[in-house]
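Dear colleague,

Thank you for sharing your sequence with our group. We've completed the structure prediction you requested, and as agreed, I am returning the results in plain text so they can be pasted directly into your records. Please verify that the sequence below matches your submission; if there's any discrepancy, let me know and we will rerun it promptly.
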Amino acid sequence: MSMSWADVRFMLERARGLVRRGLASLRTRGLGPTWARVRRQFARHVPPISTPLYLPADGPFAPFAVPAGQAPRASIIIPVYNQAACTLACLRALADHPPAASCEILVVDDGSTDDTGEWMPQVAGLRYHRRTANGGFIAACNDGAALATGDCLVFLNNDTVPQPGWLDALLATFDTQAGIGLVGAQLVYPDGRLQEAGGVVFDDGSAWNYGRFDSPDDPRYASLRDADYCSGAAIAIPARLFHALGGFDTRYSPAYYEDTDLAFAVRAYGLRVVCQPASRVVHLEGVTSGTDTGSGTKAYQVRNRGVFAAKWKDALVQQPRAGSLPTAGSVVRPRRQVLIIDAETPRPHHDSASLRLVNLMRMLADEGVHVVFLPADLRQVEGDTARLRRHGVEAWHAPFATRPSAWLREHGPRFDVVMLSRHYVAAEFLPLVRRFAPQARVVFDTVDLHFLREMRGAELSDDAGLRRAAERTRDRELALMRQADATLVVSPAERELLSTLLPATEVEVLPNLHELADTGLPFGQRKDLVFVGGFRHPPNVDAVLWFGREIFPRIQARRPDIRFHCIGMAPPADVLALQAQPGILVHGHVADIGGYMDGARIALAPLRFGAGVKGKVNLSMAHGQPVVATSCAIEGMHLTHGHDVLVADDADAFAEAVLRLYDDAELWGTLSEHGRDNIARHFSLDAARDTVRRIFQR
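Please find the predicted structure tokens below.
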């Protein structure tokens, strides 16, 4: 494939950026960490490997048991007519991988004449109901719903093989998303190809299985998404809602279009219909009714399309034109679409910038915005990419996204807003965005003012080379602010600085975003000190070394029982060497730091240089954990010494503040309460909502 001038320009800018950042990293981090960053940057992208499908082993029938809860949250209703072997495979899958949620399983037999009637009564825990006469799929489903005792009804075809975790993912959607009325699973063929990720309905009542025959891992289909309908082969709906809507409409009897009709009824009721790809179900399409629409039960699909179109003619006016091709952009219209590009997929358990970005994307999704995320490194991050998708973020990665210019050429026209995070990412992508998404409002998210952090580091070390590098970073950041339509900073102090440097530039404050956590253990049950911060960030290295070498020995001399816990990814050798001192424990990355937030008595932020708002301070205060910090660490955070934080800037004063707070329960309680209040007022999602609406929805 030939390369365009856009590709060449992008690659040149990326090369220049890599060289600049490499030299800066050498100065501040040294050769070892810099080489590790280079290797990560240029490592080959490995295509993601889809989770292998589970298919139960064939074999003759023998009695077994299926899950059967006493007070089921979910009732799994399986309508059957013959095809006993399919029903057996479906039930074996449910037995082999029982869900965490309590459930009951009902098989509703619509008059089978094969082995169904002999086998089903021998399955322990199964509720087996045989109808007196064959009435069709809709009648069997409605009968099952009448017999069910669960709060949620889950309709499951017998020609399916539910994959591990499928039910819990469906039910979790109701718990984590607002206004959900119906959730459908992602349906796949036994060979692993996608069958459907939610359906599209056109203005003539015809329908389209979105994603058919593509990869189930393709980002277009792999995130939670509103859908026109979800196939009744695997859907969940609250029992009260199903009964309030009158169940499946019998005008479509015996079958077909009843699931599409139910989805339209759910939306008319004011609730959402979504496809949840985290719930994956293998569907042997056509086993029961075949695929020939000219004969048999399948012929009702053609007839019922007309019935459906007549019933919903007013709603169909809003649907896409028949014959149009659904795309990633068209299936979410008329919602606003926002593209966010950052250096890599955010990892909210690793750093505060990632937590801020994830919470921003959650806020946008809650506001009805469709969010698309593209990492500049195009890497899928196990767990973190999936987390974004569960929030409804369309998260892209290789091999589905390859060259940024090609991806933006295809997708650029769909976006209303494009946000570029970090100056080196913005420098690479802004020309591409202006070319391929000229209609989009461009927002430059500084994350923090890099030049300010670099300048303060240079002043602390009195390094002329670092000072010149900081000046070059300043020039690049200011140039990008002039080119963007709006700039985001994390603190009022940074906005005030920019108002003098760029008075004509639109600058908004979007601070760190946190949710208040439980307050953890009371004062008397807590002990020790904790620092949390990644060590790829030079200010954190300096802070820990300063505290460990100059401050902690003063504390230990008076209180040898106090220990210092240092938590953060990639601690360098000199930080690890601090463990030679009594009472210092360097843990490196800790996957779940909740125990330290809830159990350590004091959090520390001994930063001597930096910029932006410090996530480590916010995080501790959100947990009700008091903080001792430097002036630099609380800059722009609306904090007052003695009211919601203790502040000290030299080693003696810092040690005295720690020792005072460690033994003063009353002061500890005051700082804990006021710190949480500060988070709620200035750094909560609610506090930032108006700003987010102003930036992204104007």
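Summary note from our side: Confidence is low (pLDDT under 50) at residues 43-49, 287-296.

Kind regards,
the structure core
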